[in-house]
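Today's session is about reading a structure prediction critically. Students often jump straight to the picture, but the first step is always the sequence itself: look for stretches that repeat, for charged clusters, for runs of hydrophobic residues. Only then move on to the predicted structure, which in these notes is written as discrete structure tokens rather than atom positions. Here is the chain we will use throughout the hour.
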Amino acid sequence: MDKQELKERTDVRLLVETFYGKIRQHEILGPIFNGIISDWDSHLTLLTDFWETQLFLKRKYHGNPVTVHQEVDDKMNHTITPEHFGLWLNLWFATIDELFEGETAWIAKNRAQKMSTMLFMQIYQHRNKT
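Below is the predicted structure for this chain, in token form.
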């Protein structure tokens, strides 16, 4: 498959669907995601909106990823670790590298890396409040 620039919603959708197809099959991450998400079609649309907002400033996503991830950690009895985020990031980077090239692909990696650190810190702080 030839790599292309990540430049529009259809590209974001391809990235999200390919990536979460891998997540759902992953030995460690799959049970977490599959245990929490019951409607994958709507979740993939939500994540496409999120990443389209992140990459192209389209303002399609209207949610709070911090509280969502805190709630997931609560449902998982506070067992989400930095290693989970590392596994997620490795798959995210590999999927981007498999499908895309260029500046927006780099931005997608950079944003994910920064977000993963921030989200885990917010999860950790939330644990100390509950």
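Discussion point for the tutorial: The longest strand covers residues 4-5.
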